[in-house]
Design a protein that fits this description.
Chain B: One of its GO terms (cellular component) is plasma membrane. The complex is a heterodimer of chains A (296) and B (290). Chain A is mainly α and 296 residues long. Chain A is built from 14 helices and 2 strands, in the order αααααβαααααβαααα. Chain A has a single domain, classed as ABC transporter involved in vitamin B12 uptake, BtuC, CATH 1.10.3470. The longest helix of chain A is centred in the first third of the chain and has 26 residues. Chain B is globular, with a radius of gyration of 18 Å.
């Protein structure tokens, strides 16, 4: 229903600010859902999700500006992001604890600094493409990506593999003892998650007229993904959607008055959610509903 | 010649890496929580030193006597507000939750520092800032040399505390096996509190030294967290002097890379080393326990 409303949106309005807001929400949904899949369902926290977003953006932008069809460029971006994910996740997943989290953090910083060194110039869409630049296809592409991300997670959760991932998250040893291959499940979650993050990065590269290539690797993308997933409700299908709506809109509203203050508010909110309300907004909503139905 | 000069500077900065890593290693080793906001705590210590100097011209080395305890108190507060809830969980969940809490803290401290002190780079410039010691043809900045010596002295003092003092032994026993320690009558909760606050104080002192010899800004947090993590991964846990040696090793690796690859890749070399060790030998180069 929400999706149908969003889909019809460009037909009734031509306001670019609203379309831009929509695109930001959809990108946030895709990125947060991708983090949620790996961190929320498979229990593998990455603190360097920006690495995969950035790789998707870098590859897609380079190929697309170079003349490749958009679909090919997006697929290549997702592929490269996944390849890096497996490269770091493969060895790290054999070990428990923090290795994967700090490994991805390191990877994201290596890529950010190296890309900044090698490509210091701002990347702008070529003039020919700029003349025909239109927000509406960008709007639909990011909307489709957001819906696809939610669908992937929704289908996965109910599947055997998805249940296996959650079993691994809860207790790796018990999962192994019940015949659920922990390594296999973690790796599959990683492949899906990094591919989605790469696609989100690619969509960002297709959307943004000009940006520094380094920007797509900024830790801010990781912060966005983690905050949205947790505030919305980590390990739930709709949490990241709710979180993205809340986060992006609140960011817009607050940014008008005070620069950066939204990060402070969301940082504190995030700490509260981690400590007190592990289910985020989704959990708060269902608790509130239970209270209301009990009273009436 | 250039290489030797760079290596000297590498050793000097390496001492600070070691000090930063020692704090992280202490909290990780004892509480089994990984505080990724360690670099932000260091940044706060740096600002403490900077403002004491800028407002009242207090000598930066003297102000460490104030900054260290202040950060110790901040550590107490952070533990009481946040980390005491984390250590109640079993080991897997401990690490995961501490990563998340630390992650949230980095965001809060970073944004707070920008709001309070702007994003500008700052440094403490004393009237002896330019002083150097000449050793043959090589120059050694006096301030950095003092920082290195001080870092080593602090780690030695901490080592003695852990080896001899009653509470120090309690910390080591808890790190070894907290359940056994609890059975022996050691108040594990208070030992955690002390270890965490000590780790925070070490970060603060390291930050103060960074603000004298180098520069600070709100965004140095992630950089220093990574430096400390790299050293912890290189050196393993459990030994303060191991951290110190690991820090110097990282400083030397960076210095070598500056000579052969150029300045811009200085930060990358340590991280690549870190990833390689993480992938090939995750228990650390010198370490026993990973």
């Amino acid at each position: 229903m929400l999706a149908a409303g969003f889909a019809g949106f460009p037909l009734v309005t031509a306001r670019n600010d609203l379309l831009n807001l929509g695109i930001q929400i959809f990108l946030a949904v895709a990125l947060a859902e991708s983090w949620n899949l790996l961190g929320g369902y498979a229990g593998q926290i990455t603190l360097g999700h920006a690495a995969f977003f950035g790789l998707g953006a870098l590859v897609t932008r380079t190929l697309w500006v170079g003349g490749a069809p958009l679909s090919v460029a997006l697929a290549a971006g997702a592929l490269v992001a996944t390849a890096f994910g497996v490269l770091i996740g493969g060895p790290a997943f054999r070990l428990r604890g923090a290795y994967f989290a700090i490994g991805t953090l390191g990877l994201a910083e290596i890529l950010r600094i190296t890309v900044g060194n090698l490509m210091p110039e701002i990347s702008t869409i070529p003039v020919t493409a700029l003349a025909s630049y239109d927000l509406v296809p960008r709007y639909y592409l990011t909307l489709a990506l957001a819906m696809f991300s939610v669908a992937v997670v929704a289908v996965l959760v109910r599947s055997r593999v998805g249940l296996g991932m959650q079993a691994v998250r809860e207790d790796e040893a018990a999962a192994e003892a019940s015949g659920v291959g922990a390594f296999r499940h973690k790796l599959l979650a990683l492949v899906l998650s990094t591919a989605l993050a790469g696609l989100a990065g690619g969509a960002f590269a297709y959307y943004h007229v000009s940006y520094y290539p380094q920007h797509a690797f900024s830790p801010a993308w990781t912060f966005d993904a983690v905050l949205i997933a947790f505030i919305g409700g980590v390990g739930t299908v709709h949490g990241p959607v709710l979180g993205a709506l809340f986060y992006v809109i609140a960011k817009e509203v607050l940014a008008v008055q005070l620069v950066e203050v939204h990060l402070l508010i969301f940082g504190v909110l995030f700490l509260l959610v981690v400590l007190l309300l592990p289910g985020g907004l989704v959990e708060a909503w269902s608790r509130a509903r239970r209270l209301i139905t009990r009273n009436s | 010649m250039i290489l030797t000069q760079q290596l000297i500077l590498g050793v000097l900065v390496g001492g600070l890496y070691g000090l930063a890593a020692a704090g992280l290693s202490l909290t990780f080793g004892v509480l089994r929580v990984l505080n990724v906001a360690h670099g932000e705590l260091l940044m706060l210590g740096g600002y403490g030193t900077f403002w004491l100097f800028a407002l009242w011209q207090i000598d930066p080395f003297l102000s460490l006597l104030g900054v260290g305890p202040a950060l110790f108190v901040l550590g107490l507060v952070l533990y009481w507000m946040l980390f005491q809830f984390v250590v109640k969980a079993h080991e897997e969940a401990r690490i995961k939750n501490s990563l998340l809490i630390g992650f949230g803290l980095t965001l809060v401290f970073h944004t707070l520092a920008i709001r309070l002190w702007t994003a500008d780079e700052r440094a403490v410039t004393t009237d002896y800032a330019g002083a150097v010691v000449k050793i043959g043809v090589f120059t050694v900045p006096l301030v950095r040399l003092s920082s290195l010596v001080l870092a080593f002295a602090i780690l030695t003092a901490l080592h003695l505390f852990l080896a001899k003092a009653r509470w120090g032994r309690a910390i080591r026993a808890t790190a070894e096996d907290w359940e056994a320690a609890a059975l022996m009558g050691i108040p594990v909760g208070r030992t955690y509190l002390l270890a965490f606050a000590l780790g925070t104080a070490l970060a603060g002192i390291a930050g103060g030294l960074v603000s004298v010899s180098y520069s600070i800004s709100p965004s140095i947090g992630i950089e220093w967290t990574l430096k400390a993590l790299i050293v912890v991964v290189l050196a393993g846990l459990g030994s303060l002097f191991g951290s110190f040696a690991g820090g110097i090793l990282l400083g030397l690796a960076e210095a070598t890379s500056v000579v052969f690859l150029g300045g811009p890749y200085r930060e990358v070399v340590g991280l690549v080393l870190f990833l390689i060790v993480l992938l090939v030998r995750p228990q650390g180069l010198f370490g026993d326990r990973g």
